[in-house]
Write a structure and sequence with these properties.
Keywords: Glycosyltransferase, Transferase
Domain Phosphoribosyltransferase: 10-163
Catalytic activity: IMP + diphosphate = hypoxanthine + 5-phospho-alpha-D-ribose 1-diphosphate; GMP + diphosphate = guanine + 5-phospho-alpha-D-ribose 1-diphosphate
Pfam families: Pribosyltran
Distance between the termini: 17 Å
Order of helices and strands: EHEHEEEHEEEE
Organism: Candidatus Magasanikbacteria bacterium GW2011_GWC2_41_17
CATH topology: Rossmann fold
Strand order of the largest sheet: 4-3-2-5-6-7
Mean pLDDT: 91
CATH class: Alpha Beta
Number of strands: 9
Largest sheet: 6 strands, mixed
Number of helices: 3
Length: 179
Protein backbone atom coordinates (compact mmCIF):
# COMPACT_ATOMS: atom_id res chain seq x y z
CA UNK A 1 0.00 0.00 0.00
CA UNK A 2 2.97 2.33 0.53
CA UNK A 3 1.71 4.06 3.70
CA UNK A 4 4.53 5.71 5.65
CA UNK A 5 4.50 6.02 9.41
CA UNK A 6 3.09 9.34 10.50
CA UNK A 7 0.55 9.35 7.65
CA UNK A 8 -3.08 8.41 7.29
CA UNK A 9 -5.02 7.59 4.13
CA UNK A 10 -7.74 10.17 3.56
CA UNK A 11 -8.82 9.13 0.04
CA UNK A 12 -8.64 5.52 -1.15
CA UNK A 13 -8.00 4.37 -4.71
CA UNK A 14 -11.70 3.54 -5.03
CA UNK A 15 -12.75 7.00 -3.82
CA UNK A 16 -10.32 8.61 -6.27
CA UNK A 17 -11.65 6.58 -9.21
CA UNK A 18 -15.25 7.48 -8.29
CA UNK A 19 -14.21 11.15 -8.16
CA UNK A 20 -12.58 10.89 -11.60
CA UNK A 21 -15.80 9.46 -13.04
CA UNK A 22 -17.86 12.30 -11.51
CA UNK A 23 -15.52 14.97 -12.89
CA UNK A 24 -15.53 13.26 -16.31
CA UNK A 25 -19.35 13.31 -16.26
CA UNK A 26 -19.31 17.07 -15.61
CA UNK A 27 -16.78 17.75 -18.36
CA UNK A 28 -18.62 15.53 -20.86
CA UNK A 29 -21.86 17.34 -20.02
CA UNK A 30 -20.16 20.65 -20.91
CA UNK A 31 -18.25 19.54 -24.02
CA UNK A 32 -19.84 16.34 -25.28
CA UNK A 33 -17.94 15.23 -28.39
CA UNK A 34 -16.56 18.70 -29.16
CA UNK A 35 -12.85 18.96 -29.82
CA UNK A 36 -11.03 19.41 -26.51
CA UNK A 37 -7.34 19.99 -25.77
CA UNK A 38 -6.27 18.75 -22.34
CA UNK A 39 -3.15 20.46 -21.06
CA UNK A 40 -1.47 18.52 -18.29
CA UNK A 41 0.60 20.47 -15.77
CA UNK A 42 3.66 18.35 -15.10
CA UNK A 43 4.65 16.56 -13.00
CA UNK A 44 1.80 16.23 -10.54
CA UNK A 45 -1.11 16.61 -12.94
CA UNK A 46 -0.23 13.58 -15.04
CA UNK A 47 -1.91 10.97 -12.81
CA UNK A 48 -5.27 12.76 -12.65
CA UNK A 49 -5.05 13.72 -16.33
CA UNK A 50 -4.44 10.16 -17.53
CA UNK A 51 -7.36 8.81 -15.51
CA UNK A 52 -9.57 11.71 -16.56
CA UNK A 53 -8.73 11.49 -20.27
CA UNK A 54 -9.45 7.75 -20.26
CA UNK A 55 -12.79 8.35 -18.53
CA UNK A 56 -13.63 11.01 -21.13
CA UNK A 57 -12.62 8.75 -24.03
CA UNK A 58 -15.05 6.08 -22.74
CA UNK A 59 -17.88 8.65 -23.00
CA UNK A 60 -17.01 10.14 -26.39
CA UNK A 61 -18.07 8.80 -29.77
CA UNK A 62 -15.51 10.81 -31.74
CA UNK A 63 -11.75 10.95 -31.49
CA UNK A 64 -11.42 14.66 -30.83
CA UNK A 65 -9.54 14.67 -27.52
CA UNK A 66 -5.99 16.03 -27.71
CA UNK A 67 -3.39 15.91 -24.94
CA UNK A 68 -0.48 18.29 -24.45
CA UNK A 69 1.80 19.06 -21.52
CA UNK A 70 3.20 22.12 -19.84
CA UNK A 71 5.86 22.33 -17.15
CA UNK A 72 5.70 25.14 -14.62
CA UNK A 73 7.84 25.82 -11.58
CA UNK A 74 6.57 27.74 -8.59
CA UNK A 75 8.99 26.62 -5.92
CA UNK A 76 11.88 28.95 -5.10
CA UNK A 77 15.41 27.86 -5.83
CA UNK A 78 17.39 31.08 -5.83
CA UNK A 79 14.36 32.95 -7.21
CA UNK A 80 11.88 35.33 -5.62
CA UNK A 81 9.35 33.29 -3.59
CA UNK A 82 6.34 34.38 -5.64
CA UNK A 83 7.83 33.86 -9.10
CA UNK A 84 6.15 31.26 -11.32
CA UNK A 85 8.12 30.22 -14.40
CA UNK A 86 7.05 28.31 -17.48
CA UNK A 87 9.72 25.69 -18.11
CA UNK A 88 8.02 23.94 -21.07
CA UNK A 89 5.23 25.47 -23.13
CA UNK A 90 2.51 23.59 -25.01
CA UNK A 91 3.07 22.25 -28.53
CA UNK A 92 -0.48 22.36 -29.92
CA UNK A 93 -2.08 25.39 -31.49
CA UNK A 94 -5.04 26.21 -29.20
CA UNK A 95 -6.45 29.27 -30.93
CA UNK A 96 -10.19 28.77 -31.39
CA UNK A 97 -10.16 25.44 -29.50
CA UNK A 98 -11.65 24.41 -26.16
CA UNK A 99 -8.88 23.95 -23.59
CA UNK A 100 -8.91 22.16 -20.25
CA UNK A 101 -5.93 22.61 -17.92
CA UNK A 102 -5.51 19.65 -15.55
CA UNK A 103 -3.48 19.68 -12.35
CA UNK A 104 -3.42 17.56 -9.23
CA UNK A 105 -3.87 20.29 -6.64
CA UNK A 106 -4.76 23.94 -6.26
CA UNK A 107 -2.99 25.32 -3.22
CA UNK A 108 -1.99 28.96 -3.63
CA UNK A 109 -3.44 29.18 -7.18
CA UNK A 110 -0.44 31.28 -8.28
CA UNK A 111 0.63 28.59 -10.75
CA UNK A 112 -2.87 28.31 -12.19
CA UNK A 113 -3.12 32.10 -12.49
CA UNK A 114 0.16 32.21 -14.44
CA UNK A 115 -0.85 29.32 -16.71
CA UNK A 116 -4.30 30.78 -17.39
CA UNK A 117 -2.97 34.23 -18.29
CA UNK A 118 -0.26 32.65 -20.46
CA UNK A 119 -2.77 30.50 -22.35
CA UNK A 120 -5.39 33.26 -22.82
CA UNK A 121 -2.89 35.10 -25.00
CA UNK A 122 -3.08 32.14 -27.39
CA UNK A 123 -6.83 32.85 -27.90
CA UNK A 124 -8.55 29.56 -27.04
CA UNK A 125 -12.31 29.30 -27.63
CA UNK A 126 -12.70 28.47 -23.93
CA UNK A 127 -10.30 27.80 -21.07
CA UNK A 128 -11.28 25.82 -18.01
CA UNK A 129 -9.37 24.29 -15.10
CA UNK A 130 -9.78 20.86 -13.48
CA UNK A 131 -7.99 19.84 -10.29
CA UNK A 132 -8.16 16.64 -8.30
CA UNK A 133 -7.77 18.49 -4.98
CA UNK A 134 -8.56 22.06 -3.92
CA UNK A 135 -6.65 23.07 -0.80
CA UNK A 136 -7.32 26.79 -1.16
CA UNK A 137 -10.91 27.39 -0.14
CA UNK A 138 -12.57 30.47 -1.62
CA UNK A 139 -10.83 33.22 0.37
CA UNK A 140 -7.36 33.04 -1.12
CA UNK A 141 -5.92 35.26 -3.80
CA UNK A 142 -5.45 35.15 -6.69
CA UNK A 143 -9.06 34.46 -7.57
CA UNK A 144 -8.64 31.84 -10.26
CA UNK A 145 -11.85 29.96 -11.01
CA UNK A 146 -11.63 26.20 -10.65
CA UNK A 147 -14.23 24.81 -13.05
CA UNK A 148 -13.98 21.15 -12.02
CA UNK A 149 -12.85 20.07 -8.56
CA UNK A 150 -12.57 16.46 -7.49
CA UNK A 151 -12.08 16.83 -3.75
CA UNK A 152 -12.79 20.32 -2.40
CA UNK A 153 -11.23 21.69 0.77
CA UNK A 154 -8.79 18.94 1.69
CA UNK A 155 -6.28 20.28 4.17
CA UNK A 156 -2.83 19.40 5.43
CA UNK A 157 0.34 18.05 3.89
CA UNK A 158 -0.99 15.66 1.25
CA UNK A 159 0.97 13.01 -0.64
CA UNK A 160 -0.08 10.66 -3.44
CA UNK A 161 -2.04 10.78 -6.68
CA UNK A 162 0.41 13.30 -8.10
CA UNK A 163 1.21 15.21 -4.90
CA UNK A 164 4.72 14.65 -3.65
CA UNK A 165 6.83 14.74 -0.54
CA UNK A 166 10.08 16.28 -1.77
CA UNK A 167 9.83 14.43 -5.07
CA UNK A 168 8.56 11.07 -3.80
CA UNK A 169 5.11 9.56 -3.33
CA UNK A 170 3.48 10.98 -6.48
CA UNK A 171 2.65 7.50 -7.76
CA UNK A 172 0.65 6.38 -4.74
CA UNK A 173 -2.85 5.27 -5.78
CA UNK A 174 -4.35 6.86 -2.66
CA UNK A 175 -4.02 10.27 -0.98
CA UNK A 176 -2.49 10.40 2.45
CA UNK A 177 -2.10 13.19 4.95
CA UNK A 178 1.22 13.44 6.73
CA UNK A 179 0.85 13.92 10.44
Amino acid sequence: MGLKSGASIIKTEEQIQAMVEQVADQIFKDYGNEELVIIILLNGGMFFAVDLSRALERRRTSRSLYIDTMSVSSWPDNRPANEVRILKDISYQISGRHVLVVDEVADTRRTLEKVKSHLWVKKPKSLKIAVAVDKTGENLRPKVRLDYVGFPELEGYLVGYGMDDRGTGRGLVHIERKI
